[in-house]
Design a protein that fits this description.
This protein is mainly β and 245 residues long. It has no helices and 19 strands. Helices cover 0% and strands 53% of the residues. A hairpin with a 5-residue loop joins β7 and β8. It starts with a strand and ends in a 22-residue tail after the last strand.
Length: 245
């Protein structure tokens, strides 16, 4: 398998307001350039962020984007027009669909220590959807689907782009067919003969991953066009610009 790999710490450290972040994916559809990767499917953005003590993003809007937040370390307090006041801890995730109406949010580190979150953006299948909010506990020892699937189910927001998060035990294996992108956010493992560790973003075809330690966290993005063969799937054209986090 021909793997491509980039490491977070080889990229510039940026940030805004009360956080510092590395941006590993900024797709050309939202203004990305050759310095970072494009996504797959409708996945267009990935940032690995650490909030300063008591840091926050301040209230800001999003439109026509699905915003996924995964807490890796520490705590996060969510404020905004969807599920105001929600508290999150490590191994929890929230998914916010802006749709045509849009939403505003502010993410806050309530503690005196830095926390760490991953934020991912996915373009919705069509414009003008209703706003929506989902919350997930990421279970240990398995993959938890937090995004993607058919429109006729309610467990996740619908998309042909799927997002799974695993918190794995030592020796636990994951196999996925087809094109994938995977980001290691805790621990390390073997990905088809290549040792990967926290901060490695990998792209390839046919994922075969084995956790090297307990409590390994991995985020996996895949695309399943077969779920949408009978549904209209509009193409996004031009630039889609949003503020991160």
């Amino acid at each position: 398998m021909n793997l491509q790999l980039i490491h977070r710490d080889d990229l510039p450290l940026g940030g805004f307001a009360g956080l510092k972040e590395h941006r590993l994916v900024i797709d050309k559809n939202i203004g990305g350039d050759d310095g970072v990767w494009n996504g797959i499917g409708n996945f267009v953005y990935l940032a690995d962020a650490r909030f300063l003590p008591k840091g926050e993003t301040y209230l800001h809007p999003h439109h026509e984007i699905d915003v996924i937040t995964i807490v890796v370390d520490g705590r996060l307090t969510h404020e905004g027009s969807l599920e105001h006041g929600r508290s999150m801890v490590a191994n929890q995730a929230q998914v916010q669909r802006a749709g045509g109406e849009g939403f505003e949010h502010n993410e806050i580190n309530p503690d005196d220590d830095r926390n760490r979150i991953i934020q991912i953006w996915v373009l919705p299948e069509k414009k003008g959807e209703s706003v929506a909010y989902k919350f997930y506990d990421i279970e240990k020892g398995k993959l938890t689907r937090i995004y993607g699937g058919r429109k006729n189910q309610g467990a996740t927001l619908d998309s042909h782009t799927n997002l799974d998060v695993g918190v794995l035990n030592k020796g636990q294996k994951i196999n996925k067919e087809g094109v994938f992108m995977a980001y290691i956010t805790r621990g390390s493992g073997d990905l088809d003969g290549t040792i990967v560790k926290d901060g490695d973003l990998v792209r390839g075809v046919g994922l075969k991953f084995t956790a090297a330690l307990d409590d390994v966290q991995i985020i996996i993005i895949t695309v399943n066009d077969r779920h949408f063969q009978s549904e209209e799937k509009p193409l996004w054209e031009g630039k889609h610009n949003e503020q991160s986090v």
